[in-house]
Amino acid sequence: MRSKIGSIKIAGFMFFLSLGSSVSAQDSVGDDSTVRYPAAYFEEWAPVTAQDMMDRIPGLSNSGGGSRGGFSSGGRGHGGHGGPSGGRGRGGRGFGSGSGGSEILINGKRTAGKNNSTGSQLGTITADQVNYFEIIRGTSGELDVRGSGQVVNVVLFEELSSATIQFEASLQLSEDDTISPGGNLSFSGQQGGLDYQVSARTNDVYFRSLSKENSILGDFSPNDLIREDRATDGNSTTVSANLGYDINAKSSARFNVQFGEGVGETDLFRRTIDLKINPNTLDRQRESSPSGTDDWEIGGDYEYNTEGGNRFKILLISNSATRENRRERFDQFDDGSETKNLFLDTSSTTKERILRGSFTFDIFEGQDIELGGERAQTILDSSLALGLLSSTGIPSPAFGGLVPVSVSNANSSVEEIRYEPFAIHNWIINPSMTLETSLLYETSEITQSGDVTKKRDFDFVKPKVDFRYNLTPTIQLRGTIEKVVEQLSFNDFVAATDNQDIDSNVQSGNANLRQEWYWNYEINTEYRLPNDIGVLSARAYFEDWNDKIERMDVSTSEDNLQSANGNIGDGTKYGLELNSSVRMRMIDMPNLLVTASFSVEDSKITDPFLGTQRRFLFSNRGMSSLGFRHDIPKWNLNYGVSWNNSFDGNRTRIDIDDIELSAGDPFWQSFVEWRGPFSMTYRLNASRLVNDGEFCRERQRFVGRVSSGILEEIEDQCSSSGRTISLSVNGTF
Question: What is the mean pLDDT of the chain?
Fold first, then answer.
C-alpha cells in the first residue's frame, strides 16, 4: 500500500539531523534536573493561552492533551481492529501515584479528578496569567506526583489584576458538506487566596464513513459485494469548575466538578449483492442506533504543611458514567416497506469512589518517605436485551416487537473494593543522581451478581525502582524496574455488543478473569541540545507478561461457538523508541520547530486457538511520524503539518472462527493560525487532505473453529471517513 522503507528513512534522517545540530550550539539554561521557561521566552509568539505557550517548548508538543497547535511526536497513523475488546482501557481505575509518562501540574498541584484533568485546563488559562514553565526531570518528595517520566509545572502569578473571560467558536466541514458548530466559554481569575476557573463547552458531533467489502468463498468463487454508508450525528455538552483556596500559609484546598451529557444517532445503509446466483440479487438493509451518555465527576483535596516541612494530603473523587445504545436493523424491499429483524438494547453505568491519603516527611538530609493508602470502590451495572425475527416464540414490546433471545451474562452487576497501602522513598544522592523506590500492596475483592454470581479475592505486591543520573546538565540517563498490575475492565465480565461483524450480534463475557501483570525493564536517555535547540530522547524496554488477557474459547457446545476476553498465558514484549524535537537554528530558522519519531516493537505469545507463536493482539510492529510548526512573528502567523504512520504487515487478529489482517493509510493533519486585532485568534485545521484515511481489513472465516483449517470465506473490506476542515475563532476580554 505504501513504502515502509521511505517512512523509516524520513524519521531516521530527521533524528540524526538533530544530532548534528548540537555541534555549534551553546550551553542551555537550567540546573541538572530542572529547565525553566519564563513568560518572556514566549513573548515574540504572542500566545493567547498556556497551551499555546507549551506548544512552543521543544519536546512538549501536545503533551498536555487538548492542544490546538502541537503535534505529538509519537502519534499513531491508524488504529487496529476496533472490536468489542478493543480499547478496554485496563489500568484506568483508581488515582495512582504516577503514570510513568509526563504529568502536568499547576502551581505544583494536580487536579483532584480523572476526567477533569489538569492538562485539560491549559486551554482556559490565559498567557498573561503564566509566570513560567518548569520541566522537572528529577524526582522529589515535594512533587504532587511520583513515578513520572518528567513533570511540567505551570507556575502562575500569585496575584491577578482582574478576571478573564475566554471564548472560542468553531465550525467543522465534513467531506459531504455537513457543518458542525461548537463553542467554548470560560471564566477565570483570582480573589485573595481563591483562584477559580469555570468553563462550558458544547459541540455538534458528526462522523461519516463509507466502506466496501468484496468477498469470495473458500473455493475462490465469488460470494458477495457489500457497500455501507454510516453517519453519526449528535451533540455533547460539558460544564466544569475548578476552585483552589489557600487557607493560610500552611494549608490549602481544591475542589473540582464536571458534568457532561451527549446524544447521538447513527444511521447505516447497507447494500449486499449476492454473486453466487445468476442473475445477481440485491438486498438492502437499514440500521438505526440512537445513543446517549451522562457523566459527572466531583473531586477535592486538602493539604497541610507543617513547620518542619512535612506534608499531609487527603483526596476524594466520585464519578459516574452512563452509556445507553439501541440498535435496530430492518430489511428494505422494492415496494418501500421494511421488516425489523434485529433489536439490541444495551445500557451500562460505571461508578467510582476513591479516597486517598498520604503523609510525607524527611528522614535524613536529601531523603524523604511518603506513607499512605488508597481505597477505591468501582461498580458496573450492565444490561443487554436481544430480540430477533423468528417464526417461533412470542414477540415482546420490550424487545422491539421481536422474539426475545436469551444471552448468557446479559444482566450483571460487578463491584470491586480495592485497598492499596504504599510507601515511597526518595533519595537525592547528590545534585546529579536521584533514586526513588516504592512498594505498593494491592488487595481487592470482586463480586459479580445477576445472571452470574461469583466472588473472588486478589492481592499483589508491586515494587518499583527509578534511578536517574544527570551525566551532564543536558544529558539524563534513567533506569526503571517495576512490577505493573493492570486493573481488570468490568466490560470484559459481561456480554457486549459486536458492532464490527454483521454476522455476530453479541460477544460473551467472562466472569473468571484475573489481573494481567508484567515486569517492566526500561532505559531512557534524554539529551537537551544546547542553546534551546531542542530535545532528543530514546527509550528501550522489555516487558515480561503473565496472565495476558486476549480472546479465548469459552464455548459451551459445538453448536454455539463463543469467544471472550480471558487469561491466555504468558508472553514477552520489547521495543525501541526514538524522538526528536528541534528548532532549526542550523539553517537560520529558529522559529521552525521540527518533530520526528521512530519506534519498533515486537512481542511473543502462544495463540490459544492455533497453538502458534504470534504478536500480542493490537500490538503494532512500529510507527513513525514527522511534523513541523513554523512561527512568523512579524505576521502574527504560524502553521504546521504532521504525518503519522504505523507499519503494516503481520498485524494479525485471531479469533475462534476467523483471522483478520489489517493495514491503513498514514494520517495527515495541517493547520494555519493567525492572531488578528483585539487579541482574536483565527485557526484553520485540515485532516486527511492527502488521502482519505483508508483502513483495510482482510477477514478469513473458517468452518467451525479456526483450527479446523477449512476455509469458508475471505472478506476484503476497506473504509474511509474522508477529509475534514474546521475553522475556530477565540479571544479573551
Answer: 85
